[in-house]
Every structure is written in structure tokens, then in C-alpha cells.
Amino acid sequence: FIYIKDIIDVFLKKNIIENKKFNTFNIASGKKILVASLISKLFKMFKKKKIIKIEKKHSGDSDIMYANIDLLKKFGFKNKFSLEKGIKLMINDIKKFDENSSHINR
Questions:
Q1: Helix 83-104 × helix 35-45 angle, to 10°
Q2: For each of the chain's 106 residues, which pLDDT tens digit applies?
Q3: What is the DSSP string of the chain?
Q4: Alpha-carbon distance 15 to 13, whole Å?
């Protein structure tokens, strides 16, 4: 998981994008997070109390998600936004969008 402004930052760095030696790289936070932990964080941020029950796995289910960003780190990339900060900013953007949309629909 990564906040959009961190992705844009990667694309604005010409030394990464124009490097002919490496044509494929992961853009991500590179930090491991359990899916259950992410869900718990979201419930806390929305001030909701829910019990998370992990059911039997299906094929293809992941307990944890992350991407290897060692190549980006070689170019000096560092995330500016933590997962929590990115979620808060996204929530604020959605609220602003909803407020602006409600004025248009009147």
C-alpha cells in the first residue's frame, strides 16, 4: 500500500524513470502489513468497533502484503507518507469530494 503522492514522486524523478538498466521496479511502501492489521487500523480510524473473524482460507488468499522496493531504495526513494497518514488524507479528500458533489447536485 502506498499513497498516491509517493507514486507521483517516483515518476517525477527522472533518474529512476529514464534509467535504461532497470525497466521494471515495484512502487510501494515496501512495508509488510497483515491484512487483519490493516482492517483493524481502518476500523480504529473510522471509530467503528467490529470483531474481525478470520475464516477458512481460499486459494489465492494472502495474509500479508508487501512489495520489494530495494531497487527504488538504490535511487534514494523514501516514502513521505505513512499508511496511517495516507489513509487520513484519502478520507479527507473523499469528504471534500462528497461536500463539493452535494453542492453540484442541488
A1: 50
A2: 899 999 999 888 877 777 777 667 889 998 888 877 888 888 888 887 877 777 788 888 777 778 899 988 888 889 999 999 999 998 889 888 888 776 665 5
A3: ---HHHHHHHHH-HHHHT-SS------S----EEHHHHHHHHHHHTT-----------TT--SEE----HHHHHTT---SS-HHHHHHHHHHHHHHHHHHHHHHT-
A4: 5
CB 72 within 8 A of CB 15: no
Output the CA–CA distances (angstroms, integers) from residue 31 to 15, 57, 60, 64, 65, in the order listed. 23, 23, 20, 10, 8
Q: To the nearest 10°, the Cα dihedral for 71, 72, 74, 76?
A: 180
Place of cell 474481525: 52
CA distances from 29 to 12, 46, 63 (A): 17, 22, 17
